[in-house]
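Below is one record:
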Amino acid sequence: MSDITVKLGELFCGPGGIAVGATLTKINGFKIEHTWATDYHSDTCDTYRKNIFPNNPEKVVCHDIRSLNMDVLGKISEVDALAFGFPCNDFSLVGEQKGVEGEFGPLYTYCVKAINRFKPKWFLAENVGGLRSSNNGKAFDSILNEFRDCGYTLYPHLYKFEKYGVPQARHRIIIIGIRHDLEIEFKVPASTGITKTAKSALANIPKGATNQVMTKQSRIVVERLMNIEPGQNAFNADLPEHLKLNVKGAKISQIYKRLDPDRPAYTVTGSGGGGTHMYHWKEPRALTNRERARLQTFPDDFEFCGSKESVRRQIGMAVPADGIRQIFEALLMSFAGVSYPSEEPSFGILRYDPEYKLAEGEKLKLVEEVAIYEKEIS
């Protein structure tokens, strides 16, 4: 029997974390084939072309989605499935949480537009854990309503990727949508129970690996780091007075925080000034982009394009490839009718019903409060 190929289109594709996860997924006669992708950031698009579509660069449409005609993507290929990590800036717990009222918040509506245009058998949507609490929970409820109204049963879950063998405490809400007429049930894949440490993740990086440029540290940063123990940051370490930071108000836990080699890393981010670059547990220096990519489970032969800061941004905005692979495998097994270890979705199942919408003020119950998330990633 020949393989069944699932044609996947990707919006807000980033550098390719979801794409790598899809490429590694092949199970029970199914495989996922990327047909096109779109993003607006030129370096990000170049990275995606280089690694995912080296022979078909035209399949990456580099364009602001707000003025993109979806038929341009349809002319490249119709698709069976969609994936999108819609921008999270306005939903992140670190920030003002403007939600759907912010500059980036409304961009999810273009995912709704794509779902209605392509009517895929399934879709995968990704965003930060803070999506749940943004706009007092109204943003999340509104987004779920709009996705479901497209004709899909939804399986939203707060994935803690360090529980899936990703060497990083990265918590993301993943919404799986299955077209209601297919009568396919998706189950959240059970966490693996495998813990990968920062030390194991960063071991044996090959000589000559790309994106391995070291950051030049100033004398005072080196001295400060030498006085910070693994797992500590600039605020809970016992620093001499001249090395302390003159900061009033909030004391962000990731500032000059050194990795604990025996635990998964804290969350890789894509931006920020001094003290936010992630720091080695032994050497007094920031991590290289290749090391950050390792924490995001990108393979060593995956080459990022652009300046060092542009690459840092791309890596921080990406989805852990190996974590998303496990979700894709669960999806394909669901369609193949194969059982697998599973757990209850954090937010329950939202079945398609054209007569039902969440009432004003009604909220979905979260099994594990998002407030815990903020504490754990620190």
About this structure: The CA atoms of residues 263 and 299 lie 21 Å apart. Confidence is low (pLDDT under 50) at residues 90-102, 364-378. Strands lie at 4-11, 26-27, 30-39, 60-62, 81-84, 122-128, 152-160, 171-179, 188-189, 342-343. The chain is about 25% helix and 15% strand.
